[in-house]
């Protein structure tokens, strides 16, 4: 997943706090649909221990929906939906009915 952002010179976004997540969500309201928008958090290597895809450091901030994370279908990717501004675990599946959006943090040079 992070490869799509690396191709553009960045990495999947990592939120440091609630204010940063809300700021990004406000920018996303111009995007058609309400998600999912994949972030740079995962627990792929160790269930329940969330870290960043970019540098493998422990997650600084997480705001899950009340029933998440649930590891249903062996989920490991973290996404947000604009309808709730909360994070949710997902197995990273995409289709035309369920398109994926990637939140990339692009590095300025």
TrEMBL record:
InterPro entries: C-type_lectin-like (IPR001304), C-type_lectin-like/link_sf (IPR016186), CTDL_fold (IPR016187). Pfam families: Lectin_C. It comes from the Eukaryota. Residues 5-81 form the C-type lectin domain. SUPFAM superfamilies: C-type lectin-like. This is Shell fibrous prismatic perlucin-like protein 1. The lineage of its organism: Eukaryota, Metazoa, Spiralia, Lophotrochozoa, Mollusca.
């Amino acid at each position: 997943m992070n490869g799509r952002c690396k191709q553009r010179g960045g990495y999947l976004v990592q939120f440091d706090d609630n204010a940063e997540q809300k700021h990004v969500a406000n920018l996303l309201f111009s995007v058609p649909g309400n998600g999912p928008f994949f972030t740079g958090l995962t627990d792929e290597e160790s269930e329940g221990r969330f870290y960043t895809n970019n540098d493998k450091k422990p997650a600084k901030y997480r705001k899950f929906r009340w029933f998440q994370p649930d590891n249903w279908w062996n989920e490991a990717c973290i996404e947000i939906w604009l309808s709730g501004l909360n994070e949710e675990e997902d197995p990273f599946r995409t289709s035309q009915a369920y398109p994926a959006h990637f939140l990339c943090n692009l590095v300025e040079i």
